[in-house]
What we know:
Strand content: 25-35%
Shape: globular
CATH class of the largest domain: Alpha Beta
Amino acid sequence: MSQSSSHSAQLEILDLRHFSAAQLRPLLRDEAERWLPRLHWDYTRNSALLLDYLDSRILPGFVALQAGHIVGYAFCVCEGAKAIIGDVYAYRETESTLNPICDTLLHHLLELVQATPGVDRVESQLLMFPDGALAEPFRTRGFQSFPRCFMVRDLEAHPSGIDSDPALLHPGKSLILQSWQPEYYEGAAALIHRCYADHMDASINDQYRTLHGAQRFLHNIIRFPGCGVFDPENSWVLREAGNTAQEAGSGPRNPSIEAVLLASRVRADVDHITQICITPSLRGQGLGRMMLEHCAREAVKRGIRELSLTVTEANTNARHLYERNGFVTLHRFEAMVQDSTLTI
């Protein structure tokens, strides 16, 4: 498969599975060097994981060549009836809305996934590209755009300043704030599903719509370093206090999880908040702010200088909460979704 256009002579588009990790390594190194200043994210671990997959020759995707040299790549991951656009990158692109090589790669990749039997949903969140940068390939194929914000909080400029005792915010309910433990997995997944099943973000990530999907989402955060390395020491759950036997460890351990904040290390001094949610009946009482501040205070103790997170721009309540707690928008990008089984 090949394509020539005015923006480049003899741009060839070839199957990703024809190339080894060694051949793609310089391109991925260049990409990692751009992630660091753009998103304050050490992408080298992600690159190393991707290189392992590339050597297995199982990822669907394409490579762009100019004059015989690799200049870009794109790949996707298929999960049952869903395809996820994993990445699109080319040298000297991502900085503006003009990305001709990435546009070409994306056109080929979307053509591939939309022609794959059994795939009826495609999701994409390409964090590196500013909103509008890759709009044309998606919109010509019927995707819906969900603008999102990449936000950061400088912990030196905005140190934590409030108490993190949940009893002060909700004296009528016995709540305990604790760091993440493996036994919280099922309760946390159930809470995530309960909070997001009918939320706007379930249009972006369909895993929120079912309990099984929420379990898979949580598993990916904890076990898969796609969003950094899970940081259990700065991930928190707010749970109901159990009876004496349970607290002592001799009774059944099935705690009721009322809120959760999960964080992953994306740079030696940066944690990325991958999830924060409060059970609907306790919202509006300051628990979200309390958990954010507790996370910030504990992060500083461990040498973390910055927190980051992403939020859907239309989710104004969450966005305003983050802004009130010192987060500023560093970058705007787009989540793109096409789902042939429903009207979004």
